[in-house]
Amino acid sequence: MDKNLVTSLASLPGLTISSVERTRFPRDADVQITLLRYDVHVTDEASLDRALNAVQASLTPLPDKQIGEQLTMLATLVVKPAGETAKDQAIRIKSLTAQLIKYPADIVLYAVQKVGESCTFWPAYAEFHKHIEWRVEKRRKLMEALTAKKVALTASSQ
User: How far is CA 43 from the centre of its chain?
Assistant: First the structure.
């Protein structure tokens, strides 16, 4: 998802985006790659504006009604807690929706899919969060880098 976003932004004329990452090779674990920041170089301010709009659009959340529908579908795929009533389930879905509405639509849909594939029982919010937060952090860092570049260009032109 995010690689496609960065690739599409890199195709804009006069705009270069490169990631700065830290790679660790722990002895008893898989390789760990941590995104530190994005470096942005721009020669065409219109491309920078298009990039900002694209990243902002990628941060748009899924409407709460659609999140609720996704969670209702998920409820049919997993084992519900013993003794849970329809009212309890509705409260659970409403609570999860209130948390998930903060995140980009495509990432929420992906998280619901992954949770459905990996959980046997009704998931806690943490099950969704582990699929979401690191993906959102990449987009936030990209937005921060583009915004900082826009501010710097605006300040230098005044």
Answer: 28
Q: What is the mean pLDDT of residues 107-134?
A: 95
Mean pLDDT of 110-136: 94
Q: Give the residue carrying structure tokens 């519900």.
A: 80
33: amino acid identity, one letter: I
Say what the pTM is.
Answer: 0.84
**Residue 113 sits in which domain range?**
64-134
Fill in the DSSP letter of residue 120: S
Q: What is the DSSP string of 73-86?
A: HHHHHSBPPTT--H
Name the residue among 74, 54, 73 with its Cα closest to residue 146: 54
Report the amino acid identity of residue 93.
I
pLDDT of 69-90, one tens digit each? Answer: 999 999 999 998 888 999 999 9
Total count of domains within the chain = 2
Count the neighbouring beta carbons within 10 Å of the beta carbon of residue 100. Answer: 25
Kindly state whether residues 78 and 114 are assigned to the same domain: yes
In this structure, the strands spanning 32-42 and 15-24 are antiparallel
